[in-house]
Each structure stands twice: as C-alpha cells, then as structure tokens.
Design a protein that fits this description.
Elements (H helix, E strand, L loop, with lengths): L4 H11 L8 H9 L3 H14 L18 E7 L6 H9 L4 E6 L11 E7 L2 H15 L6 E5 L24
Antiparallel strand pairs: 1-3, 1-4, 2-3
Length: 169
C-alpha cells in the first residue's frame, strides 16, 4: 500500500496515543487536518491493507496497584508452542504471550507470558493456576519478577525510530 501524506501524518499522530476525550478520533483529526469520519475511514483502510495490524493500549500496571509483575518463561516442546501459547493467551491473568527462539545453552525458554499481581504471593498463585488450567504445570519454567519499570509506550515508526543497521560483511 502506498501511504499518502495524510496517512503518514495520521500514523505519526497516532504514535502519540489517543487523547482521553469523549471523541478521540475527532481530536486526532484536528491534529492532522482531517475530519473525524476521514480519520476513521483512513484507519480502517490502513487496517484492511495491513500497515495497521491492531490498535491497543499501554496499561501502566504500577499506577493501578499491580507491583508484582512476572514474566513466566517456559520451555515448551516446539510442536506444542502454538497451542500452548493460544491457551495461555486466553487466560484473563495473562496480559502478553509470545514465542521466541531458545538461545542455548543459557536460555532454554521459547514461550513467554506476563502475569500481573499486587503482591508476589498473589502473582505466584495466579501463575500456578494459569499453568494448571493450560496443562503446562509440568513444563520447565522460570518466573521472573520485574525489578524496575522502563518507559512504556507504543512502537514508533514515523519519527525517531531506530534505523536497522546493515549487516557486516
């Protein structure tokens, strides 16, 4: 899809997030010189064509009282990763779930999911319950609690995005 200048302005403005107002798409349109209906139509066209996969939000868990945030890393047999990830992603306690390649010999894990709780014991109980319901209670794993929070924001594409380095010969 060829992006128009209006599409580029819209995507750049969207990176800053939607304003918390009754008509956020109208406010977004004001920032980029489009009517609310045009914003909605362009976003739907961008979604249908592929440049936008989905829209979501960034939740600042600590501000909501969730301070015991754990990344659960699992060593799932490769043929089972997709099905296991789908089961985990359906769990209400799981906010993020994805597969990544193992990095042996130090990193045997290939499935990751994030579980949030107010206290560590609560989070560990949630992790245990999620793994039991998902049939993953015997899978080798580690529960890694966050020690600090880094900047939470959506991906940046229009401005300030790091450029991919060329491979060295």
């Amino acid at each position: 899809m060829e992006l128009s200048s209006a599409d580029r302005r819209l995507l750049a403005a969207l990176e800053e997030g939607l304003p918390l107002v009754p008509r956020p798409f109208a406010a977004l349109g004001e920032r980029v010189g489009l009517a609310e209906a045009e914003v909605l139509a362009r976003l739907e066209a961008l979604r249908a064509a592929g440049p936008i996969n989905r829209m979501g939000l960034v939740v600042r868990h600590r501000e909501l009282g969730y301070r015991a945030n754990a990344m659960v890393v699992l060593d799932v047999p490769d043929p089972m990763v997709s099905a296991a990830g789908e089961r985990l992603a359906r769990e209400q306690a799981v906010s993020l779930c994805y597969a990544r390649p193992r990095r042996p010999p130090l990193w045997p894990y290939n499935l990751f999911c994030m579980v949030h709780g107010r206290e560590r014991l609560e989070t560990l109980r949630l992790v245990h319950a999620v793994l039991m319901r998902s049939g993953l209670e015997t899978v080798p794993r580690a529960v890694l609690f966050s020690g600090r929070r880094f900047v939470q924001r959506a991906a940046r594409y229009a401005r300030g995005a790091p450029q991919r380095a060329e491979a060295m010969p």
